[in-house]
Structure formats: C-alpha cells, structure tokens
Fold:
Amino acid sequence: MKKRLFVIPLVVFILWGCGDTFKGMESDLKISVSGTPGLKVSGHYAFVATGEVPKPQNVEGTVPFEYQGKGLTALCLFRKTSAEGTLKVEITRGGKVIAASETQAPQGFVSLTTPPPETETIIGQILNRLLGK
Structure:
C-alpha cells in the first residue's frame, strides 16, 4: 500500500510534466459506479490529462451514476456510507472494461486506477517497472 501511495503521485507528476508529448495518447474514459439499488456512497475521482494538474472531484450520491472524461488515466476512490449492500466500480476505455472492483464489506471502499500507457512507450516501460508489473 505504501508503494502505491508513492507511485500514484509520481505517475501524475511524470504525466503532467511531459506536457504535449502524450497528447495523442489521451482517450475517452468512463467511471461507472453501481451496486445494490439505493446504496449511498461518497468519494472522489480524477481524470489525468497531459499538461494540466488533475482536479479531483469530491462526490456523494446514490448508485448508479457515472463520470466521463478524457485523459491518459483515471483514478477514483468510493466508499459505502452504510454497512449493507454491494458497491461496484468500473473504468472503461472505448467501451472496454480496463479496471474493476467491488466490495460487500460494511463501510467498504473501492480504489481504482487505470493501467499505465502501453508498454511500447518509454514512459509505459518506466511506469510498469515502478508499479512492479
């Protein structure tokens, strides 16, 4: 967990600092939050685009809901505000699920980050090494 807390800001710093280098690699991303009907959740999400600092959005709501954006990567953390129910979160790129998780734990949470850019790129290789993949 400590490694992930170090790597996420590093990834954001690298992607932000590279500016227009990755402009063509940005894509449409969607974060979908679902689960037990009526489940209340809170959390935050961000889409990381090139050349700008990510702006995390704090949200509260009742499932289902979704957020769409454009960028290199997306990250989110959502928490159940009750003990009962199931919380499911998916991140899709071009209609294909690229990250997904769920929890049934009381007051449980789901934290997701999209995979780094393709390994054919230099930055992708660096990020994969940092993430231990």
